[in-house]
Design a protein that fits this description.
mainly alpha, globular
């Protein structure tokens, strides 16, 4: 039976969504095409009707994971405008640490990216760039210009992003064998990053 254009688009979206979740959970090399197709509710044989290669899927899945994260941040997801402390608290939470599959792609993909195809690397770099700009838009205190009308200095936003991602990665690395240390990393970093007035 011939698949309609709409159904083909829906199937492709399901593949990308499943791949974005599984790649975050287990890494790009930790999951194969057959498993991704099964998670999308499709047969393995249909994969190459949608993608030229696993690398092509990985690049698109990386881009979609970043878009979802940026859209959630830009939309607020229950955050008050400029409430950076609330965002830091959620990012450095035990829930986020333990749910790689639905979490931040910056932290989930960081160690894998240098070994991936250049297309995947490009999507990742673009995602970081957009995320930094979205942080500044969402949290004016990270603009680094004191609201004086000058173009934002992204240094403060990049520092915040690096601290969040690095702290989450360390907490995940320690969680299985030393949960107390993992929790200490999260709580200590939260305290440091939210010290003083962090509202925009």
């Amino acid at each position: 039976m011939k698949v309609t254009r709409e159904q083909a688009a829906a199937n492709r979206a399901a593949i990308v969504k499943a791949a974005a979740r599984l790649f975050r959970e287990r890494g790009f090399d930790g999951v194969g095409v057959a498993e991704i197709m099964k998670a999308a509710g499709l047969t393995h044989g249909g994969f190459y009707g949608h993608f030229a290669s696993k690398d092509a899927l990985a690049a698109e899945a990386c881009g979609v994971a970043f878009k979802d994260m940026v859209d959630r941040l830009a939309g607020g997801r229950g955050l008050a405008k400029g409430d950076l402390a609330q965002y830091v608290d959620g990012y450095l939470s035990e829930t986020h640490r333990d749910r790689r599959d639905i979490g931040c792609p910056i932290a989930a993909f960081a160690s894998d990216i240098p070994r991936q195809d250049v297309g995947v690397q490009a999507e990742y770099a673009q995602g970081i760039d957009h995320f930094a700009d979205t942080l500044i838009g969402r949290f004016p205190s990270l603009a680094g210009n004191d609201g004086d009308g000058r173009a934002p200095d992204r240094g403060k936003a990049l520092l915040m992003m690096s601290a969040l991602v690095g702290g989450l990665a360390l907490a995940r690395a320690a969680a299985a064998t030393d949960p107390e240390l993992s929790n200490e990393i999260l709580s200590s970093l939260k305290a440091e990053l939210t010290r003083g007035d962090t509202a925009g």
